[in-house]
Amino acid sequence: MNPIPSYSADAEARFDYAVIAEWIPPGERVLDLGCGDGTLLRYLRETKNVSGYGVEIDAQRVLGCIRNGVDVIQIDIERGLLGFEDDSFDHVIISQALQAMHGTEHILEEMLRVGREVVVSFPNFAFRANRAAINAGHMPVSENLPYEWYETPNVRFFTLVDFEELCAKMGIEIRERLAFDDQGEPVAEDPNLNGSLVFYRLGRAR
Fold it and tell me: Within 10 Å of residue 19's Cβ, how many Cβ atoms?
């Protein structure tokens, strides 16, 4: 059995944590869905003094949360967030996990029900390196898509444009979008081609 990782100074080097932290004001109440071992939530607690919970279904990762001192609830988010009241949190986060969910629309609806604002990040399947891999006859494997096709937990492969069209269909307001290349550098020009990892701040349509 592989050891369960715990929080360390290495988390400080993860640029995606820093991107999300920029959108979270100090002292907020945060819910992190698919939180893994709780490293992101602990990072936010130590840098932004947030409170809140992680939600995770995998038992080993739940143990990782406990080791990281993160309050965690073991539930299947595919079934919804019925245990949480409307507007229970300032921010609800799903970081690089939406592509592993089946009920995408339901999860987004639930996030916007229990949270004032939602933060979503995911690997952009239309990134130029992914297009090149498919053009060469292979499913892409990269830092942001690190699994071979036969072992991937991902069940949805979608692009920046696909996601924004879904938001429009659902009446979700996109308040901010950031895209980064595979070196973690910000992308301004044609983010659907040049962005490997994208981040969104979402809210209910006003």
Answer: 18
Report how far residue 133's alpha carbon sits from residue 147's, in angstroms, rounded to the nearest whole number: 14
For residue 197, what are the β-bridge partners? 123, 180
The pTM of this model reads 0.90
Q: Which residues pair with 115 in a beta bridge?
A: 89
Q: What are phi and psi of 33, to 5 degrees?
A: -90, 140
Q: Which superfamily, per CATH, for 9-204?
A: Vaccinia Virus protein VP39 (3.40.50.150)
> What is the spatial order of strands in the sheet that 51-55 belongs to?
72-73, 51-55, 29-33, 89-95, 115-123, 197-204, 172-180
Q: What one-letter code names the amino acid at 78? A: E
Count of residues making up the chain: 206
Helix, strand or coil, per DSSP, at residue 190: coil
C-alpha to C-alpha distance for 116 and 202, rounded to whole angstroms: 9
Pairing status of strand 197-204 against strand 115-123: antiparallel
Question: pLDDT tens digits, the chain, 206 residues: what are they?
Answer: 333 333 344 444 588 999 999 999 999 999 999 999 999 999 999 999 999 999 999 999 999 999 999 999 999 999 889 889 999 999 999 999 999 999 999 999 999 999 999 999 999 999 999 999 999 999 999 888 888 989 988 899 999 999 999 999 999 999 999 999 999 999 999 999 999 999 999 999 87
What CA–CA distances, in Å, run from 17 to 35, 105, 167, 193, 199? 12, 24, 23, 23, 11
Going from N- to C-terminal start, the domains of the chain cover: 9-204
